[in-house]
Design a protein that fits this description.
- The complex is a heterodimer of chains A (about 450) and B (about 80).
- In chain A, strand 15 and strand 16 form a beta hairpin.
- In chain A, the strands form 3 sheets. In chain A, strands 7-8-6-10-12-13-14 form a 7-stranded parallel β-sheet, with helices on both faces. A 5-stranded mixed β-sheet of chain A has the order 2-3-4-1-5. Chain A has a two-stranded antiparallel ribbon with strand order 15-16.
- The radius of gyration of chain A is 24 Å and the shape is elongated.
- Chain A is about 30% helix and about 15% strand.
- Chain A is an alpha/beta fold.
- Chain B is an alpha+beta fold and about 80 residues long.
- In chain B, about 20% of the residues lie in helices and about 40% in strands.
- In chain B, strands 2-3-1-4 form a 4-stranded antiparallel β-sheet.
- The longest helix of chain B is centred in the N-terminal third of the chain and has 10 residues.
- The radius of gyration of chain B is 15 Å and the shape is globular.
Chain lengths: ~450, ~80
Amino acid sequence: MVTRKGGKKPPSGTAPARASSPVDELLSAAMERGDGSLETGRYLVTYKKGAAEQGPQTLSKKGMRVADAREYTMQAAAAESVGDADALWFPEIGVALVGGEAAQERGMSAKAAASDNSVESIDPEYFVFAQGSPSESLPGFSETTLENATSEYLRGFLSAAEAIARDLRRDVTPPQVEGAEKASEADATWGLNACRVLQSAQSGADIKVAVLDSGVDMGHPDLVGRLSAARTQSFVGQPVQDLHGHGTHCIGTACGPQSPEESKPRYGIGFQSTILAGKVLSNSGSSVGSSVLAGINWAIANGCQVISMSLGTPVGVQPYYTAAGQAALSRGLLIIAAAGNIGSNTDAPANSPTIMSVAWLNPNLSPNPFSNLGKIDIAGPGQDVFSTLPMPRRYGVLSGTSMATPHVAGCAALWAGSSPSLRGPSLWMKLQATARRLPFPGIRVGAGLVQAP
Amino acid sequence: MPEKKHWIITASGDRSLRDLKKKLTESGFTVDQELEEIGIITGTADDRIAEKVRLIPGIADVSPDIPVEIGPPDAATW
């Protein structure tokens, strides 16, 4: 635990950072401050092992109103819901979240922590982000100052928060149909139309598709009947329930229903496939290679035919991924992975010769400039992809090779369902042989745009 | 005490993982996962031990574990 050092004044924005302040309010205050700090203005007080039980009492003695996470079902306490409390106590981890004003009024600081026998440290709380935005890879970005970069980052994060807040406020309305041409496409997303999924007689029945990602929203109305505890597994020490959204979105594309609720366009491909959801990415969207390997091992042991992996690391070919891909192919299983989105060389594991690498296409069927290149085997729709997001968001639009990959995985499930001879290496060859050729080099789009049978 | 790191060990396939696990443990390598289906063992050890276990017959590769992230840097994803 790093203890706050020095006499830097805690951030004092326009709005006080209360224990219950919503994240977007904290972000707005941080942007107004414009000091490049990623501090939220609140503090985290960590109690020493054994002294943790004294936490709430010591805070109460200082005159604070303390909310206890145990007051909430399954301890699912959200800071926003603590009302006018000055602090929120997390008994399982022996940490209290304290509002900025409440802490300052009582002189709580790293120094004060040293004089309190029960306290391990007092640290500023920081914003946490899942993944950088494309602007990070834009030319010239490296020349911007850290302060600008931070401010850009906060702005991007805030607009995402606002978009989600908007979605929460309105009951997601049906997409506006503009003109007759689009009306004919309203039955399905542009991605499914491009892959000619609606024309296919296949459903992916009897095919098991493992999506190794950030888990899944177990209660999503479009997926709920097709998920079971037996076919979900976490490899990152967190429940499978997807608090990130990325995994739920990918599963929707690969395996979503034939007729979604609320008259939405069809966005899912293998609508009768069996879904296996392996959580190999944490709720912050990050992980390590060994968790990914554990997920692959699980999918093979469970007799899957297709694995979809929208994840990666910008490094060279890793021998263990190549070995895992080889083991999968020899067991009749095809691993499909995202090439990555920094406009550079294909990420691992997609760069392994035994793993199918997917590039990201725009609706005009040209490769997106951010889509990685080099070792590319096939391409899929990746721009503005409509699919499931965890409730209450329900649906949302995301872009990237992450979204192109489950399009290929879904089509692979349809092909695998069309013939028991299409497994592993033969499934790989079929997908490439039937892909729609595109006027771009193979290092950008591989064999071309994936097509349903 | 030398710093321990996470490693991914790929078996060559001509020796059982159980045998390899035994040899690795004897060498001071702490095994976390035995991934039978893909012939991979993961675990922790310091650099010196990791270098040493490379020479064990039946081990094809010893690589450091790496951080993995979501492919798309998409501002709408968080």
